[in-house]
Amino acid sequence: MPEYKAPLRDIKFVTEEVLDFHGHYAKLPGAEEATPDMVSAILEEGAKFAERVLSPLNRVGDEQGCTFKDGVVTTPEGFKEAYQQYVEGGWPSLSHPAEVGGQGLPDSLGMMVTEMIATSNWSWGMYPGLSHGAMNTIELHGTDEQKQTYLTKLVSGEWTGTMCLTEPHCGTDLGMLKTKAEPQADGSYAITGTKIFISAGEHDMAGNIVHIVLARLPDAPAGTKGISLFIVPKFNADENGEIGTRNTLSCGSIEHKMGIHGNATCVMNFDGAKGYLIGEPNRGLNCMFVFMNTARLGTALQGLAHAEWGLQNSVAYAKDRLQMRALSGAKSPEKAADAIIVHPDVRRMLLTQKAFAEGGRAFIHYCSMLVDITKKGSVEEKAEADELMSLLTPIAKAFLTETGFEAANQGLQVFGGHGYIAEWGMEQNVRDCRIATIYEGTTGIQALDLLGRKVLMTQGATLRRFTKIIHKFCKENKGDKRLKSYISVLDKLNSEWGDVTLKIGMKAMRNKEEVGAASVDYLMFSGYVVLAYFWARMAVTAQTKLDQGTDEEGFYKAKLQTATFYYERLLPRTKAHVDAMLSGADNLLAMDEENFLFLNA
């Protein structure tokens, strides 16, 4: 039966040995309490909560789903009790400032705990996960009064939060939204409109839900320049900041979905609901990007989560399932057949999952380090980290969810026909994973953001910020002949990244459609190069440990072997992406719309 074990050894390899989090914390202002012993203790407790409390509820959530009756959403059995344990354990407050009730620990430490929660039970993890985006938005843009009233309750976990963007007629194109915000005499606003696809918009796990809502003021200009941001609570706060009267908003229904059944995806109706402006009028989208970037990095984590979960369960199955004999001769002659893990194609599927899961882990936690720096670094450090994050966030979100979905499918495939049967959990993993490439901006939207806004609009300056890091790494390690198979390939691809960018930029000067035509292949190419950088870093670390002598020889050799697999089996995909992105827009746009489908003979 499916189960989850927190990969603490690999998390520590990435964060301590490859990325040197301990050195990072020693230099990070306000991170004094994040000592090695403290970090280890938090990870051990987080692992216990994920394994013992959340993992057993993963299948329960899928089978029971959420129920909806008369505007009330009831979460699956055990979800509410697990959330109370989560709050009692102090987990919501881990990475938030002490002045609002937080523990003041680094965001990157919170991300390690979030990885374990997300992998053990993604549907459950979405309830507190969305609260962090609401917290970050209010922390950066809220007034002192808003922080005292709402942020403190969100940090404690007493209340949860959501983001309310999408409307029935507009998804990605937020410039079309119609929700209205009418000024009131008391300084509040009456919010009226309907939002759809609101994850955790209504539930029974916390006493109050704080909705972060995009809406238009009466005199707002058209398009995205006329959007403002509001706090709209389910229950209004009384004079003491506690739960008061019910606000005039309601859940109209919940969606019947392909996956993530344990999380309520709601239609939310705001009927003149009392709301409070966050930030400046008509600058709501700028404020919301704080929430969106938090959500995008969290969604990138979903790709890693489903790859890791699939890997753990398919490896266990492949070691146990007997089918056929190895072509080179029986490996277990005393048994009726060999375990399927001996077969090369099964190895291909397992190693694909392993390469994407473990490479994605390094990518995610590197980004979480950058988040720390954007909050607590010097002015110069913040500027560099911000620029790196602007480049890497769309790559992480889109690439890791695309490869995470591929890995989840490979996990199911290892099981053969049993993978298609519900009791093994592999088909749930695929269904739950599928949404990740869609929400918080589809792969296509992330690709346009990357190529159009982050790269071409900066004349490649943002890209060069990261390619210089790769170039420096290659230069430092090119002398080790044992690492040549990684370093030389990475160095060449790093140069090609700049070359193809220039070629697309030149084509786009003649035809702007070339950007949209090339963007997804460009993003995937970028993702494979980024992951190649992290696999090369992990290979350097593993080789160093082996040179020094270690009693974990198998662990470090496996790192080198997985790096080799990634470079020789997966990285060649970049060649196809280059050919596709440079093939031009004509093969996409030449066909008349009427000719896409012929149904009559």
From TrEMBL:
Residues 282-449 form the Acyl-CoA dehydrogenase/oxidase C-terminal domain. Residues 41-158 form the Acyl-CoA dehydrogenase/oxidase N-terminal domain. This is 3-methylmercaptopropionyl-CoA dehydrogenase. It holds the Pfam family Acyl-CoA_dh_C. Residues 466-592 form the Acetyl-CoA dehydrogenase-like C-terminal domain. SUPFAM superfamilies: Acyl-CoA dehydrogenase C-terminal domain-like, Acyl-CoA dehydrogenase NM domain-like. It comes from Marinomonas hwangdonensis. Its cofactor is FAD. GO terms for molecular function: flavin adenine dinucleotide binding; oxidoreductase activity, acting on the CH-CH group of donors. It catalyses: 3-(methylsulfanyl)propanoyl-CoA + oxidized [electron-transfer flavoprotein] + H(+) = 3-(methylsulfanyl)acryloyl-CoA + reduced [electron-transfer flavoprotein]. Belongs to the acyl-CoA dehydrogenase family. Keywords: FAD, Flavoprotein, Oxidoreductase. Its EC number is 1.3.99.41. Residues 163-271 form the Acyl-CoA oxidase/dehydrogenase middle domain. It is an enzyme of class 1 (oxidoreductase). Involved in the assimilation of dimethylsulphoniopropionate (DMSP), an important compound in the fixation of carbon in marine phytoplankton, by mediating the conversion of 3-(methylthio)propanoyl-CoA (MMPA-CoA) to 3-(methylthio)acryloyl-CoA (MTA-CoA).
